């Protein structure tokens, strides 16, 4: 069934994000006591009983000068209101109706979008006075609710039922299919029996890991504050979907936007800027950083945005190492290239830092771009798709072991502690995403790290694993005579 699009609006700190998380069934939006935490529109699929919902969390409604950040936040909220099937206007029943509530209620009465008034924080009878006071806003009977404790959701369901029925009628009149396609999850577990996997492996040369064709590519945009992450996403989308501005740290939580590029579905995730750990002291910024780290863990490809005049500084390297350690595919985007002071020096510094500080992932791709003008964005996306394909690559067991035999003959493993040469018997690819291999040898504890690096670099050259993390685990081969 086509979900009902519900925009949650109201002044700052009335519990919009708490209700958003409640309806979504999980913590997606950052919740904090400080007013104005939410700045961008955030979408999520949710459910209230048997009613599917498309929920939109919005910034708090505030009056501000035309060039202020709060005004740009309000424009995002007004756009969400225009696109919604129904709006929930929240007030804080414990505080009562404020002049700002009354002002924006007047604005909503003139909007063509139907509005349901919700008196939040009504638990324990503390908001009873504010609940009765809200009748005077002229938005109909208020729904008493406690988003934090989940009270009053049945009444909210009843209030939404007429709007769901109206949506069905509109869809039927337009002749649209109201059945939504089910989503398929990602099963990417490491096989328990690696030897059985090796025996069952096909003898094809190279293949890409099969994917659900309807599943979008998860692409996270990360970086230090004010490197142009939201500007890049807006330019890719072709609209001012995300809040931008000269202020550092405009984005506070990870915002997901569905998009399509060259026929490929992509889920773009814009994240909050990550400062050096020692400078992050406020609890709100810690929540923003945690949201960004979670976005990296859930991503398949991560684009690290860097300022052309401060390329690959200490924090950039820290973020890049986080991405590599999580096993994500990494693409570097050198932004603001149109305003770079010394382009040749910037590229030389980038290459030197990659060679000295990220040598464990050889060949990380980088693209010089301008999010503001759109320079090289097609090339950036082509690089993202190419890197994602390498990250999904699988090598057949037959070809892998032919390569292993040649590699060990060219450079045999060293002697072990007891004077016996270590023998590498065979190798198999346990999984892709990232490419993960298991090598079975006689004494894995004696094989030095330098030889493991030799094997990993050899696989990069032989099978084209440049620029993505490659994991190699050593397993001890079972002695068939040990039990007799």
Automatic annotation (TrEMBL):
GTP 1 binds at residues 10-17, 57-61, 120-123. Residues 202-211 have a biased composition (Acidic residues). One of its GO terms (molecular function) is GTP binding. Residues 4-168, 217-392 form the EngA-type G domain. Belongs to the TRAFAC class TrmE-Era-EngA-EngB-Septin-like GTPase superfamily. EngA (Der) GTPase family. GTPase that plays an essential role in the late steps of ribosome biogenesis. The keyword Cytoplasm does not apply. Keywords: GTP-binding, Nucleotide-binding, Repeat, Ribosome biogenesis. Residues 198-221 are annotated as: Disordered. GTP 2 binds at residues 223-230, 270-274, 335-338. This is GTPase Der. The keyword GTP-binding applies. Associates with the 50S ribosomal subunit. One of its GO terms (biological process) is ribosome biogenesis. InterPro entries: AAA+_ATPase, G_ENGA, GTP-bd, GTPase_Der, KH_dom-like, KH_dom-like_a/b, P-loop_NTPase, Small_GTP-bd. PANTHER family: GTPASE DER. HAMAP family: GTPase_Der.
């Amino acid at each position: 069934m086509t979900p009902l699009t519900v925009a949650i609006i109201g002044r700052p700190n009335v519990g919009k994000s708490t209700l958003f998380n409640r309806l979504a069934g999980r913590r997606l939006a950052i919740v904090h006591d400080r007013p104005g935490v939410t700045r961008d529109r955030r979408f999520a699929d949710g459910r209230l009983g048997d009613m599917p919902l498309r929920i939109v969390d919005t910034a708090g409604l505030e009056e501000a000068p035309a060039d202020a950040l709060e005004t740009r936040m309000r424009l995002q909220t007004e756009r969400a209101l225009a696109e919604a099937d129904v709006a929930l206007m929240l007030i804080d029943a414990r505080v009562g109706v404020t002049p700002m509530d009354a002002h924006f209620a007047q604005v909503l009465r003139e909007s063509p979008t139907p509005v349901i008034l919700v008196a939040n924080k009504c638990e324990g009878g503390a908001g009873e006075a504010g609940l009765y006071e809200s009748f005077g806003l002229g938005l109909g009977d208020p729904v008493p609710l406690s988003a934090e404790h989940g009270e009053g959701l049945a009444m909210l369901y009843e209030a939404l039922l007429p709007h769901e029925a109206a949506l069905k009628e509109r869809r039927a009149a337009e002749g649209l299919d109201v059945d939504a396609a089910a989503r398929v999850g990602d099963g990417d577990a490491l096989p328990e029996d690696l030897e059985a996997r090796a025996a069952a492996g096909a003898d094809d040369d190279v293949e890409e890991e099969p994917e659900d064709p309807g599943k979008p590519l998860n692409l996270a945009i990360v970086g230090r504050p004010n490197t142009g992450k939201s500007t890049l996403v807006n330019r890719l989308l072709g609209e001012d979907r995300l809040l931008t501005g000269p202020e550092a740290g405009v984005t506070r939580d990870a915002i997901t936007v569905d998009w399509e590029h060259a026929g490929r579905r992509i889920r773009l995730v814009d994240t909050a800027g990550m400062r050096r750990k020692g400078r992050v002291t406020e609890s709100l910024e810690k929540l923003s950083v945690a949201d960004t780290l979670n976005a990296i863990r859930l991503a398949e490809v991560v684009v690290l945005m860097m300022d052309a005049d401060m390329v690959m500084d200490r924090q950039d390297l820290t973020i890049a190492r986080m991405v590599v350690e999580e096993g994500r595919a990494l693409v570097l985007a050198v932004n603001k290239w149109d305003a770079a002071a010394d382009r040749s020096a910037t590229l030389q510094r980038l290459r030197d830092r990659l060679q000295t500080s990220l040598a464990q992932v050889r060949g990380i791709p980088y693209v010089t771009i301008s999010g503001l003008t759109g320079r090289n964005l097609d090339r950036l996306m082509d690089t993202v798709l190419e890197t994602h394909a390498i990250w999904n690559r699988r090598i057949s067991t037959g070809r892998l072991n032919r390569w292993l035999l040649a590699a060990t003959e060219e450079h045999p493993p060293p002697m072990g502690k007891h004077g016996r040469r270590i023998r590498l018997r065979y190798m198999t690819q346990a999984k892709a995403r990232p490419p993960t291999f298991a090598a079975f040898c006689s004494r894995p504890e004696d094989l030095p790290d330098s030889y493991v690096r030799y094997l990993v670099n050899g696989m990069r050259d032989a099978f084209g694993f440049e620029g993505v993390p490659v994991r190699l685990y050593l397993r001890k081969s079972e002695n068939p005579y040990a039990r007799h």
